[in-house]
Amino acid sequence: MAVTEGRIAVGKVADFADNSMMPVEVAGREVLVVYQGGVFYALEDRCTHDNGILHDGELLEGAVKCGRHGAKFDLASGKPTLPAVKKIRLYDTQVEGGILYVKYQER
């Protein structure tokens, strides 16, 4: 099975405030873009515990907290805290010419 890779522009860097979360669509997937401490992160916008929408939750220092049951996901590693036990999918980000891109793979 072939793997297709790509990247999608999700906005201008200047449009993201520090300590912000923005839901975007990347290749048909719901992705949450987080800008914190001068670093962009991109992760699935659904909790691995019960499929709750993460952008309705809370941005913590280095993590996103699901508003439904309190599972937290580390922005850098995707590692969860209980009640979630499965890591969240992370996406690579890239800034080029003042535009933020999210990279993806499809199988």
Structure description:
The protein has 107 residues and is mostly beta strands. It has a single domain, classed as Rieske Iron-sulfur Protein (3-layer Sandwich). The chain has a four-stranded antiparallel beta sheet with strand order 2-3-4-8, with no helix packed on it. The radius of gyration is 13 Å and the shape is globular.
Care to give the gist of this entry?
This protein is an all-beta fold and 107 residues long. The protein has strands spanning 4-12, 20-26, 29-36, 39-44, 58-60, 63-65, 72-74, 90-91, 93-96, 99-106. Helix content is 0%, strand content 50%.
Please give the CATH class.
Mainly Beta
The stretches of 5 or more residues where confidence is low (pLDDT under 50) are none
Write down how many β-strands occur, each being a DSSP E stretch of 2 or more residues: 10
Using the CA coordinates, give the radius of gyration. 13 Å
Which descriptors apply to this entry?
four-stranded antiparallel β-sheet; mainly beta; three-stranded antiparallel β-sheet; 107 residues; Rieske Iron-sulfur Protein
Q: SSE layout and pairings?
A:
Elements: E1 4-12, E2 20-26, E3 29-36, E4 39-44, E5 58-60, E6 63-65, E7 72-74, E8 90-91, E9 93-96, E10 99-106
Antiparallel strand pairs: 1-10, 2-3, 3-4, 4-8, 5-6, 6-7, 9-10
